[in-house]
């Protein structure tokens, strides 16, 4: 039995942060960072059965083309992802009355529709990218993934950086999810996504404070290759979604539209238009794949 202090419920029996009850969430869940983007997604639904707002967590559940879907905002960062992933899993896989995990578990599909910055000069603004794996630079996953063999790509990345005489602020940890079945055959370009602990220095930006990601380190990261894998983009949620989905037995995919090109120092002139195109593409893949 899970203690009251570990699994916190509201007086109405709903899960604490998300304010949701079992049955209110679909098994296919779209995550977005911006709470306002939830409506932009659910406006495309044929019908909506549920709207709930709790802090930065906005949840809409409805149906599109005969498929039940939930879209939820995580806010920015893997600290929020930690809450969302654990509480959504609890709604399906823990009996909230007895506080005991269920014997028969439900496997969920998570699809992140988000924005990110391209890390390579040849990736155009406004293009889409499916994260094949994520490089966790945010600090969340060591609290969960504290055993097992490291991904071989992480080993080669460490060796590459050592040869270049630079190092990451944290040990490289790469996580690969099981993709939802409707995305396995997708022709979207794929790559390795770096998930950062912040927007500025943790992503190599310097305003009045210098970043610990030095130009030499950024150059070494751009030049690393492992088979067909290279570091393609940077954002703030994917590794948390991928790591927790994998540990909990769910499927997950992160699809990004590239609003900035960090190698070129450019930013999309019409970011709202790029996000709308991402939503269109994402919903098409989810409902037609």
Describe the secondary-structure layout.
Blueprint: E1 28-32, H1 35-42, E2 47-54, E3 57-64, E4 67-73, H2 78-93, E5 94-95, E6 100-101, E7 109-118, E8 128-137, H3 152-164, E9 174-175, E10 190-196, H4 215-223, E11 231-235, H5 238-248, E12 251-261, E13 266-267, H6 271-288
Parallel strand pairs: 1-4, 1-7, 7-12, 8-10, 10-11
Antiparallel strand pairs: 2-3, 3-4, 5-6, 7-11, 8-9, 8-12, 12-13
Helix pairs in contact: 2-5, 3-4
Q: By CATH's scheme, which homologous superfamily applies?
A: Nucleoside phosphorylase domain
Number of domains: 1
Helix/strand order, N-terminal first: EHEEEHEEEEHEEHEHEEH
Helical/strand content category: alpha/beta
Within the CATH hierarchy, at the fold level, what is the topology?
A: Rossmann fold
- Which strand order does the major sheet show? 7-11-10-8-12
The geometry reads as: globular
Nutshell version of this structure?
The chain is of the alpha/beta class and 289 residues long.
């Amino acid at each position: 039995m899970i203690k009251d202090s570990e699994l916190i419920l509201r007086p109405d029996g709903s899960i604490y942060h998300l304010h949701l009850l079992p049955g209110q969430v679909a098994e296919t869940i779209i995550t977005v960072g911006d709470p306002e983007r939830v409506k932009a997604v659910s406006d495309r639904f044929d019908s909506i059965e549920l709207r709930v707002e709790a802090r930065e967590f906005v949840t809409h559940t409805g149906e599109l083309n005969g498929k039940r879907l939930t879209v939820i905002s995580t806010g920015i960062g893997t600290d929020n992802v930690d809450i969302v992933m654990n509480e959504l899993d609890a709604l399906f896989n823990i009996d909230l009355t007895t506080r005991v995990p269920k014997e028969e578990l439900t496997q969920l599909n998570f699809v992140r529709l988000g924005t990110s910055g391209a890390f390579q000069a040849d990736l155009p603004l406004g293009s889409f990218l499916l994260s094949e794996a994520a490089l966790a630079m945010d600090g969340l996953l060591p609290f969960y993934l504290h055993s097992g063999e490291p991904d071989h790509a992480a080993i080669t990345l460490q060796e590459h950086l050592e040869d270049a005489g630079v190092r990451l602020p944290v040990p490289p940890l790469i996580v690969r999810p099981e993709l939802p079945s409707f995305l396995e055959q997708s022709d979207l370009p794929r790559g390795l996504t770096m998930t950062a602990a912040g927007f500025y220095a943790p992503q190599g930006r310097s305003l009045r404070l210098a970043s610990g990601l030095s130009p030499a380190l950024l150059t070494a990261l751009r030049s690393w290759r492992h088979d067909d894998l290279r570091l393609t983009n940077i954002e703030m949620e994917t590794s948390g979604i991928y790591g927790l989905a994998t540990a909990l037995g769910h499927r997950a995919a992160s699809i990004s539209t590239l609003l900035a090109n960090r190698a070129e120092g450019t930013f999309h002139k019409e970011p709202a238009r790029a996000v709308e195109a991402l939503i269109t593409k994402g919903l098409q893949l989810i409902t037609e794949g």
